[in-house]
Design the sequence.
């Protein structure tokens, strides 16, 4: 589409030290995507940056891409596979974000821009930071322990496999993109390393294939350029190897394209030898390959676990009817000012039964009838809040549950500030602990499964872009199938539109080429997918939802790129029609979700 040309001017290109020094003298916030020459900058964040720039229209916010290989100041970033974004203001480093984490990037940009305005306008002292990960790496390198025979390569009970992004995929700049897809599919990358194998190393690594006809060609290919070597795991005790091999697809790329079109080899490979990805066949091979590439993996794993322990926490917040009606915006502003991100929100009307289910441990309390009456007197707003130590931070911000205590002991707390004097029930709720927070979030935002389709013209022209946006929005693709609808199938699929003037035209359009059918899973999946699609009419979408799929990729009301179920019942019907009873039952069992409360 025409908007693509904006990529050329959105991010300033920095190729040498002189240009880097010039960038440091610029005014405002500069967000720098640091990349390696062999893989290129992170493309998946460009649309996010464009959206933020267009929405804010602020000259103090600028974006750049910087090639670490040719800039002395970025020497320590060379050889890193993880996308890294450095935030500079007044020549100083003020923030670092690793990974193409869209919500975190947006939050950091907005926070740093606001802070820099206070620095420039009110003389606030700039908060200069150091890249802690680089400092930690230096400390680890200087104190790396010697591995002994007693060292465990991975924690007890954790399944792992070794993966290699091969030279062909690396040479075409696909390494970061593949790593993103691996993480979005739910795999955990315990360690990664850029590695160029010598012919001798490649021959040793593949010695079990020495009898094959193309062995020498394989050795030469694997030693022809840099690879990315990863240790892949997954949360839980399941054996990750079968799931990983399913994810990368058949060795033969042509077979992969026919049988597993969504697999990595189907998307990035070109032939059997140049099939983009390697994966261990079994645990014994994984163990041998781990020792080959990562003889000191134990210390690297410990560092990974320490980093994981800093993962932001989630908690549930409820804004009850009286405050929601009169002071919603003030409460939301207080939440934002306290540094929380709102991951999900839903305004709903609860039934008495739902209140009793949610507050079942309070049923015998004297105050419960008043609480139930309050909770059913109007709509409430449920929020999933995200922040480090979110549960404790939110409860501290709320103050005591008892209003008298809140007013006397914590007059600045939210409950003291926002509860009307005429009520005895405080107007804000927070989870007691992490376990309760997850249960309560699941109560209001259960994992759902919805049905989604990429229509023929969009599949042909924009498949990769749409798939990237689906995964960036946090959806899990539970099932996927590329199929060409017959006229009979299309008529049954769209039977609710039979008799309408556009029905025949719709059927002909849907039958003219293959569609991509998917089961998408996520908390609030039906609503979230419909929001990502945007309005049916792309003209309306471009006005009200400019970043939606239909705004970006649709041609008309009929040819509007994507389809999605309007409610859970319709989603289950379409899933059953395309994927059958087994997949529908599997999806329902995996979620274990209560019926949707969207109509409550």
Sequence:
């Amino acid at each position: 589409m025409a908007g693509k040309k904006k990529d050329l001017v959105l991010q300033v290109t920095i190729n040498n030290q002189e240009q880097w020094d010039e960038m440091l003298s610029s005014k405002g916030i500069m967000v720098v995507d640091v990349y390696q020459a062999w893989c290129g900058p992170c493309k998946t964040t460009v649309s996010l940056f464009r959206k933020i720039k267009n929405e804010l229209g602020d000259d103090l916010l600028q974006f750049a891409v910087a090639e670490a290989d040719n800039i002395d100041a970025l020497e320590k970033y060379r050889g890193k596979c993880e996308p890294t974004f450095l935030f500079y203001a007044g020549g100083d480093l003020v923030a670092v974000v690793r990974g193409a984490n869209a919500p975190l990037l947006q939050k950091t940009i907005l926070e740093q821009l606001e802070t820099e305005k206070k620095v420039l306008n009110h003389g606030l002292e700039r908060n200069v930071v150091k890249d802690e990960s680089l400092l930690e790496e230096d400390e680890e390198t200087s104190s790396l322990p010697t591995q002994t025979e007693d060292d465990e390569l991975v924690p007890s009970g954790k399944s792992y496999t070794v993966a290699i992004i091969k030279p062909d995929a690396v040479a075409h700049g696909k390494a970061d993109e593949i790593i993103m897809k691996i993480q979005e599919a739910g795999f955990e990358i315990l360690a990664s390393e850029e590695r160029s194998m010598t012919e001798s190393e490649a021959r040793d690594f593949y010695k079990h294939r020495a009898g094959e006809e193309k062995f020498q060609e394989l050795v030469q290919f694997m030693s022809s350029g840099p690879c990315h070597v990863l240790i892949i795991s997954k949360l839980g005790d399941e054996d990750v190897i079968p799931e990983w091999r399913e994810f990368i697809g058949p060795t033969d790329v042509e077979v992969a394209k026919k049988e597993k079109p969504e697999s990595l080899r189907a998307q990035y490979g070109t032939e059997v030898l140049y099939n983009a990805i390697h994966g261990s066949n079994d645990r014994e091979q994984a163990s041998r390959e781990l020792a080959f590439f990562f003889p000191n993996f134990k210390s690297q794993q410990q560092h990974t676990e320490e980093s994981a322990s800093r993962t932001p926490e989630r908690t549930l917040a409820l804004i009850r009817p009286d405050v929601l009606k009169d002071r919603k915006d003030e409460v939301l502003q207080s939440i934002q000012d306290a540094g929380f991100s709102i991951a999900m929100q839903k305004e709903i009307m609860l039934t008495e039964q739902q209140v009793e289910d949610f507050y079942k441990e309070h049923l015998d309390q004297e105050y419960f009838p008043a609480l139930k009456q309050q909770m059913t007197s109007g709509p409430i707003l449920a929020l999933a809040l995200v922040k480090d130590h979110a549960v404790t931070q939110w409860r501290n911000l709320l103050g005591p549950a008892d209003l008298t205590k809140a007013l006397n002991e914590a007059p600045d707390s939210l409950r003291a500030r926002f509860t009307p004097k005429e009520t005895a029930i405080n107007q804000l709720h927070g989870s007691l602990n992490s376990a309760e927070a997850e249960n309560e979030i699941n109560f209001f935002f259960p994992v759902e499964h919805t049905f989604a389709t990429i229509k023929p013209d969009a599949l042909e022209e924009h498949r990769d872009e749409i798939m990237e946006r689906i995964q960036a929005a946090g959806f899990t693709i539970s099932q996927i199938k590329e199929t060409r609808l017959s006229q009979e199938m299309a008529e049954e699929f769209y039977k609710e539109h039979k008799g309408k003037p556009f029905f025949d035209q719709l059927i002909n359009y849907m039958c003219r080429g293959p569609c991509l059918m998917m089961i998408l899973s996520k908390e609030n999946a039906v609503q979230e997918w419909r929001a990502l699609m945007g309005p049916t009419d792309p003209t309306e979408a471009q006005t009200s939802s400019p970043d939606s799929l239909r705004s970006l990729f649709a041609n008309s009301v009929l040819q509007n790129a994507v389809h999605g179920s309007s409610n859970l019942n319709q989603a289950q019907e379409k899933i059953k029609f395309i994927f059958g009873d087994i997949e529908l039952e599997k999806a329902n069992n995996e979620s274990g979700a209560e019926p949707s409360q969207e109509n409550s």
Summary: The chain has four domains: 2-139, 160-308, 313-444, 447-591. The radius of gyration is 27 Å. The first strand starts at residue 11 and ends at 14.
